[in-house]
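Design request, tokens follow.
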């Protein structure tokens, strides 16, 4: 199993919340075209957790419930239930059906369920839940997106400016690399450089970097090599977005360690800061005290 792949559902949840319009534009263009984003949209995660808690379904951290408005002139609004599923689940369709009718029962509004499948099983494609017997027929169908299907579209993803092109590429490259850390290093550096080449602004670069960094985990030596290459690359671009943020975070951690009397050499090993930088922080801490 790929390291930290179990966290992928949660990471996808975060990026969907950060870029919800772009998410729909990338995966569901027909839905995106019908929504009036000028009226905004509202995430109802707390309400959703309240609906599904204390029962056999359990809490689902990757689910998103979003309230949107249509732009067809009507005043009605609908709920889009987004499910990110990172593993094969026998009763997946049944669970989505239960979620759907429970949300409808609470709000008495249309509920549209969408499923993003990030697993590697080509055969796992749940698209409906059906009960049919003695003339009774209940059919619940929902559109699915299978991330591995984008493997044949990598060239298009490289050219796309939508943030989800980076997200999909990251997931596919992680699957491709598996336990090969040298390949992980190559693709992590490639993906981070691609964000700058696509012209993303600082907030987008930082958001997408978190996504990449959470999914593609390197060993200690390659992580140091990656950080050095990143520093060099950002200096060439004159855009030290990531390295500045990380350095500030490392300095904050180092200051906390200094206050606890930890050895400076140990602090340097744990934070990646030089002993010279740590001495400077220690000196400033003494002045502040």
């Amino acid at each position: 199993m790929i390291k930290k792949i179990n966290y992928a559902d949660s990471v996808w949840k975060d990026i969907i919340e950060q870029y919800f319009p772009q998410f729909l534009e990338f995966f569901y263009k027909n839905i995106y075209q019908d929504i009036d984003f000028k009226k905004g949209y509202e995430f109802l995660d707390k309400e959703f957790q309240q609906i599904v808690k204390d029962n056999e379904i359990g809490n689902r951290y990757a689910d998103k419930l979003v309230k949107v408005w249509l732009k067809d002139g009507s005043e009605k609004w609908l709920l889009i239930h987004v499910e990110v599923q990172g593993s094969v689940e026998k009763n997946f369709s049944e669970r989505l059906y239960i979620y759907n009718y429970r949300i409808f029962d609470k709000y008495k509004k249309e509920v549209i369920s969408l499923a993003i499948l990030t697993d590697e099983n080509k055969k796992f494609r749940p698209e409906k839940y059906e009960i049919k017997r003695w003339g009774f027929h209940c059919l619940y169908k929902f559109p699915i997106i299978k991330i591995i299907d984008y493997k044949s579209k990598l060239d298009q993803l490289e050219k796309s400016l939508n943030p989800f092109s980076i997200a999909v590429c990251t997931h596919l490259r992680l699957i491709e690399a598996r336990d090969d850390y040298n390949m992980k290093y190559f693709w992590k550096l490639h993906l981070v450089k691609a964000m700058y080449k696509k012209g993303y602004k600082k907030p987008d670069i930082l958001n997408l970097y978190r996504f990449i960094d959470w999914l593609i985990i390197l060993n200690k030596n390659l992580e140091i090599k990656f950080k050095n290459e990143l520093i060099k690359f950002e200096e060439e671009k004159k855009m030290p977005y990531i390295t500045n943020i990380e350095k500030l975070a490392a300095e904050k951690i180092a200051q906390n360690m200094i206050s606890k009397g930890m050895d400076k050499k140990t602090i340097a090993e744990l934070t990646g800061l030089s002993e010279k930088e740590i001495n400077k922080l220690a000196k400033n801490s003494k002045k502040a005290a």
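Comment from the thread starter after seeing the answer: thanks! Residues 34 and 70 are 6 Å apart (CA to CA).
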